[in-house]
Amino acid sequence: EVSKLAENTMFPLYMSGDKEGCVLKDDIVTTPKGYKEAYKALSEAGWIGISSPAEFGGQNLPSSVGMIVKEMLATSNWAFGMYPGLTAGASNTLMAWGSEEQKKQVLPKFVDGTWSGTMCLTEPHCGTDLGQVKTKAVKNADGTYTLNGTKISISAGDHDLTENVIHIVLAKLPGAVEGTKGISLFLVPRHLTKADGTLDTKKNVICTGLEEKMGIKASSTCQMTFDNSIGYLIGTESEGMKEMFTFMNAARLGTALQGVAHSELAFQNALAYARERRSMRALNGTIDKDAVADTIINHGNVRHNIMFAKAIAEAGRCFVFDMCKILDKYEAAPDAITKKAWDQELGLLTPIAKGWLTEMGQEAASHAQQVFGGHGFIKGNGMEQIARDARISTLYEGTTGIQALDLIGRKVLLAKNNEVNKLGAKINALAKANLFGKGEVSSMAWQLWIYQKSWKFLIARIKVGALKNKDFIGTASEDFLMASGYLMGAYYWLRMATVAHEKVAKKQDPEGFYQMKIDTANFYFQRVFPRMNAHVQICTSDAKTLMRVKQENLDL
Prior knowledge:
Layout: H1 2-10, H2 13-20, E1 23-25, E2 28-30, H3 35-44, H4 63-76, H5 78-97, H6 100-111, E3 115-120, E4 136-139, E5 145-155, E6 164-172, E7 183-189, E8 206-210, E9 221-234, H7 240-276, H8 300-331, H9 336-372, H10 383-391, H11 400-413, H12 419-433, H13 440-468, H14 471-505, H15 513-527, H16 531-539, H17 544-547
Parallel strand pairs: 3-6
Antiparallel strand pairs: 1-2, 4-5, 5-9, 6-7, 7-9, 8-9
Helix pairs in contact: 1-4, 4-5, 4-7, 4-8, 5-6, 5-7, 7-8, 7-9, 7-10, 8-9, 8-14, 8-15, 9-10, 9-11, 9-14, 11-14, 12-13, 13-14, 13-15, 13-16, 14-15, 14-16
């Protein structure tokens, strides 16, 4: 049912929504034509609350099931999917940190689609460095708070899809300590709820500007002004950053899914075009003698571009869904120790998934655009829009560079747990189990086994390099993230290949589905995975090649 909704309702709005965009007039943001009806259809079908608790009207299904639904919606229309996506993040934050009263008042409204949610972090002078936040909150006599400040680049900050928007806001209280330790988290509604349960018509928070963006134009990206806005404390004072990470980590996993979605959509578009477009003859001889030329799918370079997008989409899908399975285990953990263990594993994988999959999604879109040639550059076939929409994924929720610093800093060098070694052992165990298997699976396993050893040795070299020169951390970080991403991609492709090989060997593959898995795995191992070696080599380069350059000489 959700596939029908995605294909018949969401996807037809993908290009029209981009062309029309959102409009701000008289403090009211209007979404593109058809969006209100689509959001209503999504809400009434119950998909917004698929993983929300039943006590608030949700279906209480595991996060992994919810992610399957999200992927179909995301691939059909990413800009539209951001509205319920931000609401899901706000819902998770309130579930983890909100009071019982806040949960009872807000969560049912999120689930039934009456209200939506946002995340308000960024300010004009600070994005990543949130310790510089200037938005102020002052406690009132009735226990509420008055907020003043400006937030920018707020996705789904204001729109006409729901009757109310709930902002999850970072702000500082008077006398708070400097830096992130002085930040608190607040719930600030667009419209306050009156004593009789109805909404005040006056806006409590106002959208004072819409960003003019490169892509995702149908998603409203707002400048939000808090002018004596009334809010409510979430959790504990000065614990805002810890609490907001619930939202941020969910958003980063969602953004990793964006890399998968754009890869998949780019693949589908390029494949359909390559099967129809004719140009020249195949190098190994004419394929269709009765036609003026052969279809371009028969050209090696075109096929490479298509296979790249397919390989990234399918490896990325496994990566994201596997992380959601870990999230399921985290949520169902019987005790705090077990819960912490699953959380630490997710913590290590999140920057790899967000950083690598979004970079690969952007590249997949570019490869697919190449299949169209000049037609990929013009509007009308969707490829230039996919390329534009994919670009933001590497930037918001922390750029690739920020993900890389998080990975190499917090998750490797400063980590007190053993997650890096556990991940290496998991990859090593899969490889060793298949070293002496049959056919192509064995060669893949050997390659993964060798590369995993290289990755493990690389971590040791980074630790030594960091002791000698702190700049080594920054100069090695992004290449370490990319090397880790390629390794994870190979891990998931070997898992798929081992299952597929068994099915083919047992002649349980009448449609060729499993053989295609083996063929795509081979493509990944031979034409994508070797990139890891280059990143490993760059990682270990002397930091001086970058840092000894005098910045005042860069323009000479």
